[in-house]
Design a protein that fits this description.
Layout: E1 10-13, E2 19-23, E3 60-61, E4 66-69, E5 74-76, E6 79-85, E7 91-98, E8 110-115, E9 125-131, E10 138-147, E11 152-162, E12 184-189, E13 197-198, E14 206-207, E15 231-234, E16 237-244, E17 250-251, E18 254-256, E19 271-278, E20 285-293, E21 302-309, E22 324-334, E23 340-348, E24 364-370, E25 374-379, E26 382-388, H1 391-395, E27 398-406, E28 422-434
Length: 437
């Protein structure tokens, strides 16, 4: 859902402050596309040249890799033997994000090569040992890359939960984020205790549907009380488990901070919302953290601020999108010319920022600050998009939603069969600031 800014100035900033896209005030202007990011990590050089979201040219994406053990979306600890097949492939490499080490002390962590070249037998079967205790505790993704001597390539994202390992970057930070300096913390949830979710949110922390109606996932958002309950509290994380059964029934999850009776967590400008999450880049996956305004009856329009919208899947007919979208919408509002008022949009070049990793590789923090003058988006505490705040944003409170949509109105097809028709989104924490201390 791409937008341009009409009649307003839009800046998209790298942490250095360098502007890489800017729209003039001319209503007919469209923001220039960011320059393709430079290669970010040498580990990718001999595989998919578009790992940074630059190109699929010459690549024939196939689904060759099938993991037989450990099961997808399962728990592990210690030294874990991963068995898989990749028929028709000749080269296999395995990567996983790792916490800072003596050899690589970057505070962001780094991409570690678990197995540089896995040997395959005549049937395409192979295995490697993953030393889980040397990697972060909690949710993780083993990325198995395979290719043949021609154009065929494959990437299998094996989601696992490490019951051992190194506790690193978990839970709500002890310090306030830079964007919320001077504001008061009014809500925080690190999902370290029992979940409080109901279908209407009344008497609980969260509602399990888009408040007021309008669910949008192909695998429907389901209730905590349902037989296919997608929600669980694991370790110190919220797990949203999307799945489809053999009988065709499917399920995924959304939590909303606003309840059907109008109660819940809301914040008015100046305010700041932040969430730390990760999900799987599988065809159909559509994770998001976003905000909506709550205005009185009779007020025309609604502002929507999408701190992150990510789209999973590689190959023909898939998004092939290693970055994520940050977007503002001024729904139902018109400008001086009588046309729909557009807001701001940017494709955030994750592979050029911070630790240079994608939304499915490791956890990242996504935030939005709304002030009486500006709306500012943040990625891992780095400003990445700024535009003037809309009138409704300045005037009415926001509530937040966290969801793992699968297909639906995104238009992208769903293909999770090789993962056993299941996929996980993990949420570390969410917190909200408002006003002044």
């Amino acid at each position: 859902m791409k937008s341009t800014l009409l009649g307003l100035a839009l800046t998209v900033l790298l942490p250095s402050g360098i502007v890489f896209a800017q729209a003039p005030a001319d209503a007919s202007a469209t923001p220039a596309a960011p320059a393709p990011p430079k290669p970010a990590a040498p580990e990718y050089a001999d595989f998919y040249t578009g790992e940074k979201g630059t190109s699929n040219k010459g690549i024939n994406w196939v689904q060759s890799i099938a993991v037989s053990s450990p099961p997808y979306c399962s728990d592990i600890k210690g030294n874990v033997t991963v068995n898989f097949t990749a028929p028709g492939m000749t080269h296999v490499k395995v990567l996983c994000w790792q916490q800072p080490t003596a050899d690589n002390p970057s505070p962001w962590g780094h991409d570690a090569v678990v197995a540089p070249d896995v040997t395959l037998d005549d049937t395409g079967a192979g295995s490697f040992v993953f030393p889980a205790d040397q990697f972060p505790n909690g949710p993780m993704t083993l990325r198995i890359y395979a290719k043949n001597d021609g154009p065929k390539q494959d990437l299998c994202e094996l989601q696992l939960f490490n019951q051992g390992g190194v506790v690193w970057n978990q839970g709500i930070p002890k310090t306030d984020p830079p964007a919320a300096q001077g504001m008061k913390l009014i809500y925080a949830d690190d999902f370290s205790g029992p979940l409080s979710i109901t279908k209407d949110g009344i008497g609980a922390k969260y509602e399990s549907h888009k408040t007021g109606g309008g669910d949008f996932s192909g695998w429907p958002f389901s209730n905590f009380e349902d037989d296919m309950n997608p929600f669980s509290q694991v370790g110190t994380f919220l797990r949203i488990h999307a799945s489809k059964r053999d009988d065709g029934k499917s399920s995924s999850g959304l939590i909303s901070s606003l309840h059907e009776d109008g109660t819940g967590v809301l914040a008015s400008a100046p305010c700041y919302f932040e969430c730390r999450l990760m999900a799987q880049s599988a065809p159909g996956a559509w994770p998001a953290f976003w905000l909506l305004t709550k205005a009185p009856a009779g007020v025309k329009g609604c502002d929507e601020l999408d701190a992150i919208e990510a789209y999973g899947g590689k190959g023909k007919g898939n998004p092939n999108f290693m970055n994520y979208a940050a977007t503002s919408h001024f729904w139902g509002q018109t400008g001086p010319d009588g046309k729909q008022l557009q807001a701001g949009h940017a494709d955030i070049p994750m592979m050029d920022l911070g630790g240079k990793s994608s939304w499915s590789t490791t956890f990242h923090t996504y935030g939005v600050a709304i002030t009486p003058t500006d709306t500012v988006y943040y990625f891992d505490n780095m400003e990445v998009l700024r535009h003037p705040s809309g009138e409704i944003s300045r005037s009415y409170p926001f509530w937040f939603l966290i969801n793992y949509a699968i297909g639906g109105i995104s238009g992208w097809h769903i293909d999770m069969a090789r993962y056993g028709n299941q996929s996980d989104m993990w949420v570390d924490y969410v917190r909200v600031y408002q006003g002044t201390k």
